[in-house]
């Protein structure tokens, strides 16, 4: 895969988006993609022959990289491309944190792999044990409360964003995700963490 900081043609991007979301290409998809492409820094992903996807980023604040959207053709999903493009944007911006909004447990999983602390999470922990500052005194390392910016936005998308619900092979993790994100209602989960 080749990744460049550039904006693909809107018609190509809309066709990839339709395939990625298992929807029929339409004027509505075209207009939605055109709007999103104008809203941030765009990275274009090529497979050597054609457009494989694109990602759009913004800085939510001086240290938080916000993944506004990532679209990958179905045949390139699950190959580490999302992690690679997030890594490139992180390196370019110097971001220390990542934020994204999704209906997809697969995208939550990408953030969970890239970040030390990722919220929401199945354990519900809003903090961490600070082993770095603990010098071995009696007791446990101090527990540091963590600012949880994650949230569930009920019916954000007004229905399913994808034509077909994206699922994860880890059934217990999928069960947890389904308990917080109602796909049919169109819920969005805002995920947040530190690289």
Description of the molecule:
The chain is α+β, with helices and mostly antiparallel strands and 195 residues long. It has two domains: 1-95, Gcn5-related N-acetyltransferase (GNAT) (Aminopeptidase, 3-Layer(aba) Sandwich), CATH 3.40.630; 102-128 and 143-195, no CATH class. Helix content is 28%, strand content 28%. The protein is built from five helices and ten strands; from the N terminus they run βααβββαβαββββαβ. Strands 1, 2, 3, 4, 5, 6, 9 and 10 form an eight-stranded mixed sheet that branches. A two-stranded antiparallel sheet has the order 7-8. Strand 2 and strand 3 form a beta hairpin. Helix 1 crosses helix 2 (27-37). The radius of gyration is 18 Å and the shape is globular. The two termini are 23 Å apart.
In short:
This protein is α+β, with helices and mostly antiparallel strands and 195 residues long. The protein has five helices and ten strands, in the order E-H-H-E-E-E-H-E-H-E-E-E-E-H-E. The strands form two sheets. Strands 1, 2, 3, 4, 5, 6, 9 and 10 form an eight-stranded mixed beta sheet that branches.
């Amino acid at each position: 895969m080749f990744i460049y900081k550039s904006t693909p043609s809107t018609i190509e991007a809309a066709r990839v988006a339709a395939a990625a979301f298992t929807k029929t290409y339409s004027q509505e998809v075209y207009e939605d993609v055109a709007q999103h492409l104008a809203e941030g820094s765009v990275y274009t992903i090529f497979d050597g022959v054609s457009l494989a996807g694109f990602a759009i980023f913004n800085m939510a604040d001086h240290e938080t990289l916000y993944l506004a959207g990532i679209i990958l053709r179905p045949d390139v999903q699950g190959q580490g491309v999302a992690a690679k493009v997030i890594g490139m944007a992180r390196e370019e911006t110097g971001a220390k944190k990542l934020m994204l909004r999704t209906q997809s447990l697969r995208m939550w999983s990408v953030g969970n792999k890239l970040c030390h602390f990722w919220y929401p999470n199945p354990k519900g922990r809003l903090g961490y044990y600070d082993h770095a500052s603990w010098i071995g005194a009696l007791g446990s390392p101090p527990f540091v409360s963590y600012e949880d910016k994650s949230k569930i936005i009920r019916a954000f998308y007004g229905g399913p964003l994808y034509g077909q619900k994206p699922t994860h092979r880890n059934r217990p993790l999928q069960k947890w995700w389904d308990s917080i994100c109602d796909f049919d209602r169109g819920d969005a989960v805002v995920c947040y963490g530190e690289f």
